[in-house]
Structures are given as C-alpha cells and as structure tokens.
Design goal:
transferase, Glyco_trans_4-like_N, 27 helices, six-stranded parallel beta sheet, eight-stranded parallel beta sheet, glycosyltransferase activity, alpha/beta
C-alpha cells in the first residue's frame, strides 16, 4: 500500500498539477494509493486523476493511523506532501504526528520519501523546524526543489519542481507549432500595485511582438486584481468562471499554448506556461521569494527580475532577450523534464522503497560541507551574515558546477539551534569565569556535534570531498565515518584561536584551541586560505608546506548585477558589517560630518549591521546632534540590506590588522559594493586591487587624513555615467563569480584525488 499526503490550496491550479505529477509516479509503484486530501473540494480531487481503486482520506489522524498499521508491511511507501511547507506550529505538529509511524516503518528500512518540497519562510521558527527536521532524517529520499531549502535542512538532493514535467510529452508534441498570438499576464492578489512603468512595459512588449495581452487567473484569489490590471492594460481577462479545476486548467493550457510568453510573479503560472511552450518571464516589483531559486534549481538562466525603478525600455529589452533566446529556454525545459523523470524512477525503484542506503547511479553527493561554528546559521535573519553569505554562495557555486553536496552545520544538530540565536554583542565584556564555562560548553558541544556527524555519515556512501570550514575547538571531519576515502579540504578564514582569544577576548582555552586548530590544518590534504597574507600566516602558525595551501578569495553573487541602482539627490555613504570597535566607525562618523559641512551637495551616512558598539555610536550621534546625517538600520535580512545599498554612492571598508602581523582577511563587503556599482573607499588588500583591475572604482587609503580627503574628492566629483557603472558591474561578475572560485577548489581536489594525499592524516 502506498500512502500519499496530498493537500494543497484549493483555489490554486498550480497546487493541483504538481501533486498530480507526484501521484502519477506513486501510482506506477503500486496497485493502490491511499491519498490524504484534507478539506479539498470535489473539483480539486477530480483534477488529481485518482484511480477507482485509490482511497481518499479527509481526516489526518485517520490517515496517519491507517498508514502506521500498514507500515509493518514490506511493500509499503509513504510520500510527503510536495510543494511549499512552512516551519510553523500547524505544519510542524502535523509532521510530529508522523514520527511514530516513520519509526515503526524502519523495520523494513527507510521507506518514506520527501520529493519536490520547498520551504516558505513566512512565520519561520527554529523550534518548529526542528520537528520537521526529525522527519527529514527518517526519510529514505529527500529531494528539494531549491537550494535554500536544502541548505536549511542540510541533507538531500536538489531537483526541479514536479510541475516541470506536467505538460505535453516531447513524443506527443504537435508537428505544427500553434499560432502564438497572446502575451499572458498574471499577478498575485497580495502583491503591490503595478506601477505605470510596469504596465507601459507590458503594453510595449505586446505591441513590439505584434500580439495581444490577456490577463489570466490561475489562482482564484487573484481574480479581482486581474480585472484591475486588465482595465489598466485595456485587454480581456481569462477568469475562473466555474467550480471545475479541470476545466480551468484546460482553458489556461489552451491560452498558454497560443502565447509567445507569459508574465507572472507566480511560480506555477510560469512553469505551467513553459510546459505549453510559452516563454516564462518574471519582471516583478517586489522581492522574489520563489521564482529565481526554483528556476535556477531546474537549470535555467534568470527568468525573473526585481524591476522596481526600471524604465519601461529596460524591462522590455530584458524580456526580449529571453524571448529571442527561445532555443536555450526549450533546451533547459527538456533537461528539467528529464531530471524530474529521473527522480520519479528513483522514487519508484526497489532501493528507495526498501530503504537502501546507497543512491542511484550519478546521484552520490560529491562534497560533504562541514560547518562547526555554533553561532552560524543560514536563515535570512542569521546573526552571522558574513559566514552565511560565504557558505550559501559556495554551495550555490557547487550546484552551478554540477556537484551535489550534503551540508553538516552544527546549529542544525539536535539541541544546538539555541547557539545560533546568540549575538556577538551578547558576550562582549563577559568575565573570566563566564568565558571558562563557555569554553567547557564548547568542548562538550563539539563532541556532541562530532557524534552527530558520525551517525549521519556512517549510513551514507563516501563523498569525493570533505570540505570543512575551520571553527574554534571543532574538528567535525575527525568524526566523519568516511574520512579515509575522501579528499580532505579545510578552509581557513583566519587564525581563529588567536582572534577569538586575543581580539574578541571570548576564549580562555587558547592553548587547547590552538593545538586543535593546528591539528585540523595539518591533517588536511589541502588548505584553502582567503588571501596570500593569510597563507603566509598559516605557514608560520601550523608549520604547513606552502604548496599545500590554495588561495581562494571571497567572490560575488552574480545575481547582484540584476539589482537596479536607485539614484538619490544627495550623496549617500554607506557601511555594512559588524558594528564593533575595530571597525573605527566613530572615526567614520566624525570624518563624514566634516566632509558634509564643506560639501555642495547633501551628504548622508547609513550604517547597516549590529554589534557591541551600536549603542555607543547611537549615543555619540545623539550627543553630537548628527541625527540628520547618520541613519542606523541595524541588522537586516540580506535582501533588505541590498535594497538599501542600491541607494548608496560610496561603500566603506576599513579593515585593519589586529593580533596578526598583517590584515589577512578577504572582505566580502568589497565584492558586494563592487557588484552594486558603488565607489569603494577601503584599506589596502589584494581583493581591493583585484577589483580595481576589473574596473571597479576603488580608492585605497592608509590613514584618517587620507580617508577624509578621499571622501571629499568623491563627494565633490560628478557621479560616474550609468553606462560605465553597469560595465564595471558586469566585469566584476565576470572576474569574481563564486562559480569560478568553486571551480578552482574542485580542480585542485581532482588533482589530489588522482595523486598523493597528505601523509599526516
């Protein structure tokens, strides 16, 4: 018996098609399916195309009870609800009710599957995520539909959404291409009002293509908004006029089949239209929470953009570039369809049903990525935004290189999530006894994390690479059950035992931490350092052979180039990062105040970030009566921070050496500033010089007086021409993208795999 949790939004055709596609896969695996549909309408259930022998459940407890009883049978399989899940109270408790059933089913192996799932961050809470995480660990197959969802749970594979294969099969495609005479348009009911520029762009795109715009309704709630938009465009509406999901889907597919392209901010409108041969376009005037990530996971070049502030011509030219590259879109669609079918074969294979610990050919993850830092988390509201950005982009680079990865992050292990809520300012100024206690907690927690790594890796095949980010008092790779057969790579972002003890002053067991850090570095086949200066420090610190160190600086997320710059009348100087003493932000504020007093244009300083010095700086600004000059945004989600930074003219980075002999860090903010088109005022580093070579406007200073004179010069000078700015942004992406950075590491690992590895392991 096959059990399938299949409950979606009743007024959403997209929720029908992705669940129906998974149902077809499950139906091919057994003669009968028991399907939980909740309170779905008859129209929703009819559109799922259930067989007469399939059983419909509407009571969740009854469904779970029946599934638990039958889980003792060998020919049993349970499929989790595909689509979007939320880490909130209701859904997490529903998952918790399944845990006893999943434990009972282990008598014949892991036979529960979670495929085509993405995590919605609305109402997210780590406590509720923990309950869902238990069910993730008990599943035999986890396949996520976007990289961020996989990163949140740290295990499983990534594949396109089920709906990418819910359309006409290649073998049944019509010989004659239908006349495509429409431009479909659909917008969310809860999105912001469309601007006049957006409406003008849609109208202009349709006129330029010689086709007719039609506003459509794929989600019933969108109907009032659709009529408003149709009035603005002067066109007709394909509304949802009856209670039949099947009939509305038929009407929509007929429209998509006759459309050149479809514009929408709804994921499954674009996916369904793609299945009928229309080009998907996602120009939207709000944050994109779904489309970019899901299409990227399916292997597509960008089809969605945040076009707030764009003029109509730019929107039209961007859309036309995608439409004119139809062959690439069609190729990506075929690839996505085939990948979905491969996942379907994996789900219905005997190995998946009987819980075989190995994976299907070609799906073994090539990299196990280990993060031992207790405070590091990957959510939007992470208290460690720098490490989060580095890790997420590195994992994305692996995906772009065609490498699968499993993430092992300490904060995701049981009882470890609480550490990720600690802010850097929470332990600043702590007394000696408190720090000794914290050191003891670190040691015990490190052992606990190591045991979790052992338990999770012993049941998995060996990866090609174990990649560990160095952390204080941690060595996760030492606990990895397959470490002897993989290339062992360690990434160093500093000499952490020294920095933590001497600079941050939150470590007393420096000798123990130093010895463990040296051991981790010496046992690696390859050490990745973020700068040449750090490589030299590591040679002295751990007595390493310089030939075993690969220098890979930070990189840039190529998606930043798509964020439009938002010009302002005044000159905006900005800083983003940790608000701590060594950043010398008090001197920055005073310098900007002096520059502003002699400037012709208005000047403003904005500071994004949190830290121990934040309250002191606010008090300083208040005492000096500089409230009109300085704005403190505090800690922000990354997307919100980037939205603020697009208004800046100048980005500040004043990294200085601390307890080290030189400034050896690779400032991530430099790459973000450059990709956003800002002029950069910073201290000297190889990163700054490299970005300048790529065309970024970089001004290096040595002391306070030079810093101030550089600011005065920039504020007084005319702004760079927008075309020059955009060219430099494109060059920065070309030269410093994460994909290339990751490729450098993979090439070195490949050479090691075919040669001799470290003898100190």
């Amino acid at each position: 018996m096959i059990y399938y949790w299949c409950a979606g939004q009743d007024d959403n055709i997209g929720d029908v098609i992705l669940r129906r596609r998974m149902l077809r896969t499950l139906q091919s695996a057994g003669p009968r399916c028991a399907v939980y549909v909740g309170s779905a309408s008859d129209g929703f259930v009819e559109a799922l195309a259930l067989r007469p022998e399939d059983i419909v459940h509407r009571n969740f407890l009854g469904f779970v009870g029946s599934a638990t009883v039958h889980s003792l049978r060998k020919n049993w399989l349970f499929g989790f609800n595909p689509g979007e899940i939320k880490c909130n109270r209701k859904q997490s408790l529903m998952h918790a009710l399944l845990i006893p059933m999943m434990l009972v089913s282990l008598v014949h192996g892991r036979r529960c599957i979670r495929v085509g799932v993405g995590v919605g961050m609305d109402g997210y809470h780590a406590v509720w995520r923990a309950l869902i995480a238990v069910t993730v660990r008990l599943c035999g197959v986890n396949v996520w539909r976007d990289a961020s969802s996989r990163a949140l749970f740290g295990t499983g594979d990534i594949a396109p959404d089920w709906a990418f294969d819910e359309g006409p099969d290649d073998s049944t495609a019509q010989d004659v291409e239908p006349d495509r005479e429409y431009l479909g348009v659909a917008v969310r009911y809860d999105g912001p009002a469309t601007s006049a520029a957006w409406v003008a762009a849609v109208r202009s795109l349709a006129d330029g293509l010689g086709i007719t715009p039609v506003v459509l309704v794929q989600v019933r709630r969108d109907s009032p908004r659709a009529h408003e938009l149709a009035a603005s465009l002067g066109c007709e509406v394909l509304d949802w006029i009856d209670e039949s999901h099947a009939e509305q889907e038929k009407r929509l597919r007929d429209l998509y089949r006759r459309s050149v392209a479809v514009i929408s901010d709804r994921l499954h409108v674009l996916v369904m239209a793609l299945g009928e041969g229309a080009i998907p376009l996602g120009p939207m005037e709000h944050r994109d929470n779904k489309i970019a990530g899901h299409f990227a996971a399916a292997g597509f070049a960008p089809v969605s953009w945040d076009v707030r502030g764009w003029v109509p011509d730019r929107i039209v030219s961007t859309a036309r570039a995608v439409i004119d590259d139809r062959d690439s879109v069609d190729d990506a669609a075929r690839t996505a369809r085939n990948r979905v079918r491969e996942v379907g074969l994996r789900v219905t294979s005997r190995r998946a049903r009987e819980g075989d610990r190995t994976r299907a050919p070609g799906t073994t993850p090539s990299v196990h990525y280990m993060v031992g830092g207790f405070r590091i988390s990957l959510g939007d509201n992470s208290n460690t935004p720098g490490p989060r950005t580095h890790i997420v982009n590195f994992l994305r680079g692996l995906e772009q290189q065609g490498r699968q990865s499993d993430l092992y992050i300490a904060s995701s292990f049981p009882m470890m999530g609480r550490f990720s809520t600690i802010r850097q300012s929470d332990y600043t100024g702590a007394g000696g006894s408190t720090i000794w206690i914290a050191d003891a907690v670190r040691v015990v927690s490190a052992i606990w994390c190591g045991l979790n790594v052992t338990a999770r890796t012993i049941v998995k095949p060996a990866p090609q690479i174990i990649y560990e980010r160095v952390s204080v008092l941690q060595s996760l790779t030492s606990f990895h059950a397959r470490k002897g057969s993989a290339v062992r790579i360690v990434e160093a972002n500093g000499v952490l035992s020294r920095e933590t003890a001497q600079d941050r002053k939150v470590l007393r067991s420096e000798r123990l931490a130093r010895a463990l850090e040296r051991r981790v570095l010496r046992r690696a086949d390859l050490v990745v350092a973020v700068s040449d200066r750090l490589a030299d420090e590591l040679v002295d610190f751990a007595d390493l052979d310089r030939g075993r160190i690969l220098v890979v600086p930070n990189g840039v997320d190529e998606r930043l180039v798509d964020l439009p710059r938002e010009g302002t009348a005044c000159r905006v100087i900005g800083f983003v990062g940790s608000v701590v003493k060594w950043q010398n932000l008090d001197q920055l504020i005073l310098a900007v105040s002096r520059v502003e007093s002699g400037a012709c244009d208005d000047v403003r300083l904005e500071i994004v970030g949190d830290g121990a010095e934040l309250e002191n700086l606010k008090e300083m600004v208040q005492r000096a009566n500089l409230g009109d000059l300085v704005t403190f945004h505090g800690r922000m989600a990354q997307a919100d921070a980037f939205a603020v930074m697009t208004n800046w003219d100048i980005g500040i980075a004043g990294h200085q050496k601390s307890s080290s002999s030189s400034m050896y860090h690779s400032p991530l903010k430099l790459y973000e500033y450059a990709a956003l088109g800002l002029a950069i005022v910073c201290t000297d580093s190889s990163d700054a010089r490299s970005l300048a070579t790529s065309g970024a406007d970089v001004r290096i200073f040595d002391d306070t007086s030079e810093f101030e004179s550089t600011l005065r010069e920039l504020v007084a000078a005319p702004r760079r021409h927008p075309a020059d700015v955009e060219r430099s942004r494109a060059a920065v992406i070309r030269d410093h993208a994460w994909r290339a950075r990751v490729g450098t590491v993979l090439d070195a690992a490949s050479n090691l795999a075919s040669g001799e590895r470290s003898s100190t392991r």
